Amino acid sequence: MTRFVHPAKEDITLEGVLGALSDPMRLKIFRKLLVRREGSLSCSGAAPCEEMAKSTLSHHFRVLRDAGLVRTTKQGVENLNSARWDDVNGRFPGLLKAIMKFQP
Q1: Does residue 101 sit within a domain?
Q2: Over the chain, what is the mean pLDDT?
Q3: Is residue 89 part of a domain?
Q4: Residue 84: band (very low, low, confident or very high) from pLDDT cuts 50, 70, 90
């Protein structure tokens, strides 16, 4: 069984958050998860485009998870992802709100 490692709130770094969100695809994934702040999305449900390879999508979710932006849980055969807005906002107040206002 796959075990996902998520950094503790106090281990989330500014460099990690900014680095993870510097990629346009990861930013789109994170925005999609924010729309569902109270719920979770599967990896394919959060994918910014249909033709993205599963390995590429897995990589993007690993980067987001390692940065502390996403929490992934296993439910049956699906990996469900949710944004860790409260944890990141608690660590860096206002940062995500400022980033999400930016439209590339």
Answers
A1: no
A2: 90
A3: yes
A4: very high
Give 38-81 pLDDT, tens digit per residue. 678 888 888 888 788 889 999 999 999 999 999 999 988 888 99
3-state secondary structure of 71: strand
Q: What is the CA radius of gyration of the chain?
A: 13
- Count structural domains, the chain: 1
Q: Which residues contact residue 19 at a Cβ distance below 8 angstroms, ignoring those fewer than 6 apart?
A: 63, 67
The CATH number of the domain holding residue 41 is 1.10.10.10
Instruction: Give the separation between CA 86 and CA 92, rounded to whole angstroms.
Output: 10
Which range marks the domain in which residue 44 is found?
Answer: 9-96
